[in-house]
# Entry
Amino acid sequence: MRVLVLAAALSASLAALAPPARAQSGALPDMGSSAAQQLTPQQEAEYGAYTLYQLRRYGMLLEDPLLEDWLDGMGHRIAAASDRPEQDYTFFLLKDRQINAFATLGGYIGANAGLVLAAENEDEFAGVLAHEVSHVTQRHVLRAVERAKKDQLPILLAMVGAIIAARGSSDASDMQQAAVIGGFALAQQRQIDYTRANESEADRIGIQTLARAGYDPIGMGDFFARMDRLSRGNSGGYTIPDYLSSHPVTTSRISESRDRAERLRAEAVPAATATTSKTPLLLPSFVLTGTADPGKQGARGPSQFAWARERLRVLSAPSANDAVREYELLAKAAGGKPSPAQRYGHALALLRQGHPAAAEATLQDLARAEPGHLWLELALAEAARAAHKDDLARQRFEALLVAHPQNHAVSLSYAIALNEMDTREAGRRAQAVLRPLLATGGFDALLQKNFARASVLAGDEARAGEAFAESAFLNGRADDALAQLTALLKRDDLDYVQRARIEARIAEITPIALEMERQGIRPEDHPDDA
# Structure
């Protein structure tokens, strides 16, 4: 419950947090009457990034290379078809099985694991993403800033209190929850009016975006109908969705979504032959049509949803034993004939439980039926590593690197396996595998964490120090990152380029650390941060 309330408070109170860019001024941004003038795009991005770092710091994010690539590809496919394709978007998953999704400033859009598990197909999940993207494109979040400006202080104190309250207390959970509820309730009340006014607009714009992205627009109405059924009678093992508190579902809303979908379906054929300014012409045809790329097994497309959902089911389960039991129930419900994706999920659960041989047998059987499937081949490489067959694991990973050069999921998964081998040679290979990704993945916390570990194994202490500092920063500990970088400057083995890079990063992080200190947010030690 503490995690749920904290996550909600972070998103609800985002509008009240002073942006790092104004740290040295010691004042909250000047709120004008125009939403477009309240925050600059840079400040919006800083708000969103800060929220993401804090969610990571408290272990709420579900960070998995394969799922991140799947969500990122799907989210940007939708964003490219939106009214503001030039907007930067960041999509992320949370471990929580509550059904919820939200949009924050800067194009940051989060979805709970429970949302994916509740959806029956990719069109339904895409409908929710399109709705949240529309909240960004229509500047609904910025309008929330304007409405909430009179309540900045209580909302801000609630969020900060949730982060630092009751340190070391035996009843910390209750105290943190109490610190949040007052401010969160106030923020929610302030959002009621504009939520009711803007939800219809987000539905209308979102369903058009959904159709332009190549998804079946009926997916949005179908998901709303599912939420309505859940609200009338809690079923399926889920609690009443948090999604309904900020996205109230009514009969008219469902019918309007379905009516729009039917009209868009009817217009789909003639629209496909016309060129409009809203069509993302640079996207390949398989993205526009929503069909998988015939040249790539497991490419973007509706068929990938089932595999992503099962992987998410395993990684969001409280434990490996819980995941295995869940698949036993699913197999029973399917009459002993689970789908290939469910068998894949069961194999991952067994792998997590410590039974690599059983997982290998299932994965090999699936791979024979679907040769070249990236998700299966990665799981087989991970199964070899879990069985301590390091030579076989490296052989499989190296083959994947040849087939998918510089693929984010392949490279990061391989580096994680190499780091587990805990040798100098493995560390050097992990460095080489990850180094090409650093140019574009500097804000990838998992990448920085594993590059730091690889550098330690390789004996490259200075480079490890830089990566550990970045990992600390991306986990919401700006002052810790600053201290680590400042200490690095005292080394006498830095070359000119590395010293200049560190000094530039210190200059960037310093105002952020000062602002966090001004807000009263102090670093806390978390074993998974480094």
Notes: The two ends are 26 Å apart (CA to CA). The first strand starts at residue 90 and ends at 94.
